[in-house]
Design goal:
- The chain has about 250 residues and is α/β, with parallel strands linked by helices.
- It has one domain: Rossmann fold, CATH 3.40.50.720.
- About 45% of the residues lie in helices and about 15% in strands.
- The protein is built from 9 helices and 7 strands; from the N terminus they run βαβαβαβαβααβαααβ.
- It has a 7-stranded parallel β-sheet with strand order 3-2-1-4-5-6-7, with helices on both faces.
- Strand 2, helix 2 and strand 3 form a beta-alpha-beta unit.
- The longest helix is centred in the middle third of the chain and has 26 residues.
- The chain is globular.
- The structure holds 1,4-dihydronicotinamide adenine dinucleotide.
- 1,4-dihydronicotinamide adenine dinucleotide binds next to helix 1 and helix 4.
């Protein structure tokens, strides 16, 4: 069966590492991006230069119509989706909860929570064996923050990842008999550009002493776990969480 993966926010960071590894493992890959076409195109070029199949598709995952277009374009250009990685995510400037605005919370939840909801729904409608689909696997990129809570930095972000955890659990049970597995990874401190959006690009240098393995993780270390959860090596695993957090 042809394997087709959609990686949201796949133009950089964990998403880009996942897209490249998925292509190496034989998936035709849709690299979704919101605004940075250049970086998404460079991931696609890297995959194609290595002999793989990839397309880049612009879509804001928090927009219902754009998510539908993302899945339709993938249907048309690559075939029915068999794997979805809900990787797109945002956080904002570190601050105390009492200082945060309602607009900020809406932005965080629109992308991290409702973006994942919309992509899960679009994927399930296509994958479900109840609707003539071939089944599939979904991996949600949660965060260790869902358990740590991120006090004084971004409680809102942590809470959005808590919602992603509940989504993972509930859906895994609801769609198990439709041939779809739903799992999540919870990365810890991973070396990506995301920390700069919190206002502290060198955050990992400050916090790495708290990690038993005494370092931040790499994007590839997260991608390996995601690809395992998507693969036929994990066919008895659903509703599960893999923490990739150096022992935190
Ligand atoms: P990143 O900032 O490099 O990548 C996030 C990607 O998501 C970017 O390409 C961005 O353009 C895209 N994106 C954001 N909003 C979007 C939207 N509305 N529609 C489409 N794409 C959108 O950061 P990183 O670290 O690679 O993050 C990937 C995922 O990993 C996120 O869900 C993040 O919460 C999660 N994570 C990251 C950790 C870290 O330490 N870097 C730790 C735990 C979880």
């Amino acid at each position: 069966m042809k394997q087709v993966a959609i990686i949201t926010g796949g133009g950089q960071g964990i998403g880009a590492a996942t897209a490249v590894l998925a292509a190496q493992r034989g998936y035709a890959v849709c690299v979704n991006y919101r605004t940075n076409e250049t970086s998404a195109d460079s991931v696609v070029c890297r995959i194609r230069n290595a002999g793989g199949t990839a397309i880049a598709v612009q879509a804001d995952v928090s927009n219902e119509d754009e998510v539908e277009r993302l899945f339709q374009t993938t249907d048309e250009k690559l075939g029915p989706v068999t794997a979805l990685v809900n990787n797109a995510g945002i956080l904002e400037q570190q601050m105390k909860f009492e200082e945060m605005t309602y607009d900020r919370w809406k932005r965080i939840f629109d992308t991290n929570v409702f973006g994942s909801f919309l992509c899960c729904r679009a994927a399930i409608r296509r994958m479900s064996t109840h609707h003539g689909g071939q089944g599939g696997a979904i991996v949600n990129v949660s965060s260790l923050a869902s358990r740590a809570g991120s006090p004084f930095e971004y409680v809102d972000y942590a809470a959005s990842k808590g919602a992603v955890d509940s989504l993972t659990l509930g859906l895994s049970k609801e769609v198990a008999d439709a041939g779809i597995r739903v799992n999540a990874v919870r990365p810890g401190f991973i070396d990506t550009a995301m920390h700069a959006s919190g206002g502290e690009p060198n955050r990992i240098e400050r916090v790495k002493a708290q990690v038993p393995l005494k370092r931040g993780g790499t994007t590839e270390e997260v991608a390996f776990a995601i690809l395992w959860l998507l693969s036929d090596e994990s066919t008895y695993t659903t509703g599960s969480f893999i923490e990739i957090a150096g022992g935190r």
